[in-house]
Design a protein that fits this description.
- The structure holds 2 protein chains of 2 kinds.
- Chain A has helices at about 1-20, 25-45, 50-65, 75-95, 115-120, 120-130, 135-145, 150-155, 160-190, and one strand spanning about 100.
- Chain A is mainly alpha-helical.
- Chain A is globular.
- Chain A starts with a helix and ends with a helix.
- In chain B, strand 15 (about 360-380) and strand 16 (about 380-395) form a beta hairpin.
- The chains are: A mainly alpha, B alpha+beta.
- Chains A and B meet through helix 2, helix 3, helix 4, strand 1 and helix 6 of A and helix 1, helix 2, helix 7, strand 11 and strand 13 of B.
């Protein structure tokens, strides 16, 4: 297992070095290695598949342009993932609209039972996340999926910690309601 | 509730963290073409750098040559006929082969006595500052009686003393600045300058120029004035990690606006062609966000839940427009369907939306302290000059307005703007002297902020302004 890991690391290093020299074949190899995982990530941050494809394209262009800035510290996949999230964050910020800075949504108990989730595929969950408003989606993804703290999220999004917390709470409520609706509908159909 | 304990968080994270999906094929094609474009840009960049270096060298060289050609050229003339008789014997004495090498320092030193009777005056003929000896010209044998002492048959006059003796007083003639007398079309015999008593339109001659006691042209060193200008202003965007899509999004949505600027100036001119100016200017720059509209909310369906803080903001490329808390109308910009979705997502049941044909205006008001250098390329009554400088700009206002059908209402202020910024100034100008002291000017000027005016770390906004400054200057 360790030998396989070392082999993969060596192969990745060779590909990265090729990319740094502008080798188009290596660039394509790098893209092939990570594109499906990153597209899966982008889908969670986008309104739809077209937006996700745009984020993926912009993100990978940045990866190739900034590849020399990757110092080899930490996971390369983590580095790419962070670039994709930053790209999604920029798109979110570019949506010029009025957003309430504060919200006083009341916390609610978890209404959805564990077994409800068992019937939902990952694709179903992505679709539910995509249905959230951009701000709720962004806060939920950054907190629940990526593990950022509210303080980090407030800095990344330019909102207050309180807003981040209330947005997360509201996002959870909406998701729970939608999961329940989905469950009720499917029960009714079945 | 932590993310680990929360069922919703955990369920979503478990399923989505490793979620994979095949992207469309056109994504790689887009990436590939962008990388190919990068490669070409790098090649073009080198060519541009070389071209820019050549341009800078040429510009510096041109300025150096222009600065070297000081207008303070001295002409050696005589204005006393009596001096002729005193000078002539010397001229004869010195008309020897040794004196022919008059360009040597020794020959120069012998000129001193003769210069006692000479008057040095400046002229703007582009000749470098030096004693211009009329004997430098190849002269034929003079025909006048005062020139008969020249006995050289070859027509060549050697030595400054000889040439000084050849000078002939020219009768005063009013109305012109310069008078010349030629024995033939190509030979200059004498030049004399008389200050004109009446201003006269004379192209190429500074009719207001004064001559000091030392024979040097004097010019007004100080000046005060005022200028105003209509200004078209907008901004360049720089996204921190080169995301051109982000900036192009804003560029599609936003646009420049026309405002105004003006102020008072003080200038000092150490040289006739060169002046330095400072002053205090007020300038209003800004931009507008298109496709704006507002949602009029009824009382029962407030924008947020009862008791919540009614604070709202619009994020755009340059700063964040913050609304006052007592917001009755929700001003929105762009993407109407999404905005409605946003409203719907916060449990609004009814609202009234107007058409999206309004604009949100952002004004950035600055007090500017400029330092501007001007160089008069054409130093005449109708002059032409180049100007360049720097300005320190202090933010004094950042109001934001909603505008629709000619009605404008302030909706808030732009936050996240830096209090102090710096801008570079470049321009050209024409000036016209309507009298000795008063001069009017017109200067198309370009100003570019050298640092971003917003505190946003991801999108940096660099405003620029194009103005046609016009004003009046009083010199003394």
């Amino acid at each position: 297992m360790q030998i396989l890991t070392e082999f993969l690391v060596d192969e990745l290093n060779n590909i990265i070095n090729g990319c740094l020299k502008g080798n188009r074949k290596c660039q394509e190899q790098l893209y092939t290695m990570f594109s499906t995982r990153m597209y899966g990530l982008c889908l969670q941050y986008a309104d739809n598949q077209d937006d996700a494809a745009d984020i993926l394209q912009e993100g990978f262009i940045k990866v190739f342009r900034k590849l020399e800035q990757f110092r080899g510290k930490g996971s390369f996949e983590g580095w790419i993932r962070r670039i994709m999230i930053n790209t999604a964050l920029e798109r979110y910020r570019s949506q010029v609209r009025m957003y309430p800075l504060t919200d006083n949504t009341v916390k609610k108990e978890d209404m959805v039972y564990e077994e409800v989730f068992e019937k939902l595929s990952a694709t179903d969950l992505v679709r539910l996340v995509q249905d959230l408003s951009p701000r709720y989606r962004m806060v939920f993804n950054l907190y629940a999926i990526e593990g950022y703290s509210h303080k980090e999220i407030s800095e990344m999004m330019g909102i207050t910690v309180g807003t981040s917390k209330s947005n997360l709470s509201r996002a959870r409520d909406i998701l729970q309601q939608k999961v329940k609706q989905y469950f009720d509908t499917s029960e009714h159909i079945s | 509730m932590s993310r680990r304990k929360n069922t919703t968080d955990r369920r979503f994270r478990d399923q989505l963290r490793q979620f994979e999906a095949a992207p469309p094929d056109e994504v790689w094609r887009g990436i590939s073409s962008a990388l190919e474009l990068d490669k070409r840009k790098k090649q073009v960049l080198w060519i541009r750098r070389i071209a820019a270096s050549i341009a800078v060298i040429l510009a510096v060289g041109t300025i150096w040559i222009l600065l070297r050609e000081s207008p303070e050229t001295k002409l050696v003339i005589r204005d006393t006929p009596e001096a002729d008789s005193q000078e002539m014997p010397q001229a004869d004495d010195r008309d020897t082969p040794e004196a022919e090498s008059r360009d040597t320092p020794e020959a120069e030193s012998r000129d001193t006595p003769a210069e006692a009777n000479l008057q040095s005056v400046p002229a703007e003929n582009g000749i470098r500052e030096k004693q211009v000896n009329l004997a430098d010209a190849n002269m034929p044998a003079p025909q006048g009686e005062t020139l008969s002492a020249s006995t050289e048959g070859n027509g060549t006059v050697s030595g400054d003393q000889v040439h000084a003796g050849l000078l002939k007083p020219v009768p005063r003639r009013s109305g012109t600045g310069f008078q010349t007398e030629f024995t033939d079309p190509q030979t200059l015999l004498a030049m004399s300058y008389y200050k004109s008593t009446l201003p006269e339109e004379s192209e190429g001659i500074d009719v207001f120029e004064e001559w000091g006691e030392d024979g040097q042209a004097s010019h007004d060193k100080w000046g005060v004035g005022t200028q105003v200008s209509p200004v078209y202003s907008y901004r360049n965007l720089e996204v921190s990690d080169g995301n051109t899509a982000g900036s192009s999004y804003y560029n599609d949505l936003e646009d420049g606006i026309v405002t105004y600027a003006g102020g008072v100036n003080v200038q000092y001119a150490p040289l006739k062609r060169l002046s330095i100016q400072t002053g205090l200017h007020y300038s209003r720059t800004g931009m507008k966000v298109g496709n704006a509209y507002y949602a009029q909310l009824d009382e029962r369906n407030t924008f947020m839940d009862a008791g919540a803080s009614r604070q709202a903001s619009i994020n755009n490329s340059t700063g964040t427009i913050e609304m006052p808390q007592s917001l009755d109308n929700a001003y929105l910009a762009n993407e109407v369907p999404l905005a409605i979705g946003e409203l719907a997502s916060i449990s609004m049941t009814t609202n009234t939306l107007s058409d999206a044909n309004g604009e949100i205006l952002q004004h950035f008001e600055y007090l500017e302290l400029p330092v501007i250098l001007r160089y008069r390329v054409v130093d005449r009554r109708l002059g032409f000059h180049l100007l360049s400088g720097l300005s320190t700009n202090f933010l004094v206002g950042s109001k934001a307005y909603y505008q629709e059908d000619g009605n404008k209402k302030q909706i808030g202020t732009t936050a996240d703007l830096k209090p102090v910024n710096y801008s570079g100034i470049m321009g050209v100008g024409v000036d016209y002297s309507i009298s000795k002291r008063f001069h009017i000017n017109l200067e198309p000027t370009f100003r570019l902020y050298l640092n971003s005016i917003n505190s946003d770390s991801m999108i940096k906004s660099y405003p620029y302004a194009i103005g046609f400054y016009t004003g009046i200057l009083y010199t003394f």
